[in-house]
Write a structure and sequence with these properties.
Layout (H helix, E strand, L loop, with lengths): L2 H28 L1 H7 L2 H22 L2 H9 L6 H22 L1 H5 L4 H26 L3 H25 L3 H24 L13 H11 L2 H22 L2 H10 L4 H20 L6 H25 L1 H8 L11 H23 L3 H26 L1 H22 L12 H18 L5 H15 L1 H18 L4
Helix pairs in contact: 1-8, 1-13, 3-7, 3-9, 3-11, 3-12, 4-5, 4-7, 4-10, 5-7, 7-8, 7-9, 8-9, 11-12, 11-17, 11-18, 13-14, 13-16, 14-16, 14-19, 14-20, 16-18, 16-19, 17-18, 19-20
Length: 475
């Protein structure tokens, strides 16, 4: 692929995934005043526990096959029909196991309504994920984007109906997610003509299934470890402090959604480009240039949001949740290191090296769990945020400085980047612990980061200007 087309492809995919992912995440942030004024901290904490548990068991019951479906569909001349059918059968088997095990939840005293909500949340989440990954893998990025838009629009519509109109509270909040996912499932099935990708009776190629599981199974412990990094502190907060503390933490964790959404949008597109350009002679110069600007956007965005976090919290959080602003700075920087870890992880994915991804994630998970146990009793939500930050720093550092010799020229550990990361950590500490003249100090730190990335800012502005002139037909 020539230079212009490779950047055009990355930009096009990123734009489509922006519609699908970033817009929906951004709207979920703007919905926070709506949620925090209708749901109590305890209700919000309970809903968060259900979705968090689904994210834990999802990769286990599916054997990580959804990621395998995406990766193997990206290979040229692959049998898309066999790949999807293999994935579908594994997903159905995992769903059947969960249905059989569901009565255990009733025996241990969980209310039937919450059990049914949990079950249907899992079913709709897993099939939505499976279909979306497949649509990306076969090049139907527009279908994927529209699916994300539908998810956003229908979730908001159902929330207004169930929370404001019918006043169903927690049940209405969960039902909105279930019905929204159902709409997406129906849409993707129709849009891609899913029937033509399913073998009903044909014996599937064992070699393909073996290779897919060889790729996907190592992702199971990796997904669990990643879940520990992202979510274990919520269980500890609920157990050690209470559901309300977890509700405040969950709301605070919505602010880093801006960073995680930007990262998620880009990584989804980048993963496709990283794979397609993996065998190109000049791949590292392409990777290096992309990472340079990706790094600048994430760091500058994180610093700017930390600078305005107290104002943002006053606008978005009700009084019961306002204290969450103190947790958010550490979570913001944690999301930043998670974003960089994800970029490096895509390089490992491109060469199908999932073992290294697993080892680094497990290391971070162990540190997160240990620090959460030690810090939460003393610092509560702030302790959970600090544990998350340290664990993601470890994951990023190990991936950056142990990546194979073939990627050294990408310059993932450039001194300028390291300095900017250090400034972000200082900025988050200054705000969280309200050091003397903390706001002035944060402004100085933000200005220093802008100066560090001034070359990238100017280059991006000039590039944007040239693009607009071309679009206007002036050159």
């Amino acid at each position: 692929m020539d230079i212009i087309n490779r950047y055009k492809k990355l930009a096009t995919d990123t734009a489509l995934f922006t519609v699908s992912t970033f817009a929906s995440k951004l709207l979920s942030i703007f919905m926070l005043p709506f949620y925090t004024n209708i749901l109590t901290a305890s209700d919000y904490g309970t809903a968060d526990m259900i979705t968090t548990t689904v994210s834990l068991i999802f990769p286990v019951l599916t054997m990580g096959i959804c990621d395998g479906v995406l990766r193997f569909c990206l290979d040229k001349d692959s049998d898309k029909k066999a790949i999807f059918t293999i994935g579908l059968r594994i997903v159905l088997a995992g769903t059947a196991l969960l249905v059989i095990a569901t009565p255990i939840l009733l025996v241990i005293g969980i209310p039937p309504l919450l059990v049914s909500m949990f079950l249907f949340t899992y079913i709709t989440v897993v099939f939505t994920n499976m279909l979306n990954q497949f649509s990306r893998g076969i090049g139907e990025t527009k279908v994927f984007a529209i699916s994300g838009f539908l998810a956003t629009a229908t979730t908001i519509g159902f929330n207004i109906l169930f929370l404001v109109g019918l006043k169903w509270g927690l049940a209405g909040y969960l039902l909105s997610t279930i019905l929204s996912n159902t709409v997406c499932i129906i849409y993707v099935c129709v849009a891609v003509g899913i029937k033509k990708y399913i073998y009903l009776n044909k014996k599937l190629p064992k070699e393909t299934q073996k290779e897919m599981l060889k790729y996907s199974v190592p992702l199971i412990p990796n997904s669990i470890a990643w879940w520990i990094n992202l979510s274990s502190s919520r269980y500890l907060l609920t157990f050690l402090v209470g559901a309300s503390a977890n509700g405040i933490y969950a709301v605070a964790n919505r602010l880093p959604t801006i960073i995680t959404s930007l990262s998620d949008v880009f990584i989804r597109a980048w993963q496709l480009s990283a794979v397609s350009e993996f065998n190109a002679e000049d791949r590292n110069s392409f990777y290096r240039r992309v990472y340079r600007y990706y790094n600048a956007v994430i760091v500058l965005g994180c610093s700017a949001i930390i600078l305005g976090i107290q104002v943002i919290a006053k606008i978005l959080f009700s009084a019961e949740f306002y204290e969450g602003w103190r947790i958010a700075p550490f979570l913001m920087v944690s999301a930043t290191f998670s974003a960089f870890s994800g970029f490096i992880g895509s390089l490992y994915t491109a060469c199908k090296n999932t073992r290294t991804i697993f080892h680094t994630t497990v290391m971070g998970a162990a540190i997160n769990l240990l620090l959460s146990v030690l810090l939460i009793p003393f610092l509560q939500g702030v302790g959970a945020g600090l544990a998350s930050l340290i664990s993601f720093i470890v994951i990023w550092a190990v991936r950056t400085f142990t990546i194979s010799s073939g990627f050294e020229s990408v310059q993932l550990g450039h001194p300028k980047y390291l300095l900017s990361y250090g400034l972000l950590i200082v900025q988050s500490c200054v705000l969280t612990f309200e050091c003397p003249y903390y706001y002035l100090l944060m402004i100085v730190i933000f200005a220093a980061i802008v100066l560090l990335y001034w070359e990238e800012i100017v280059s991006a502005v000039k590039g944007g200007y040239r693009f607009l002139k071309c679009k206007g037909g002036k050159v």
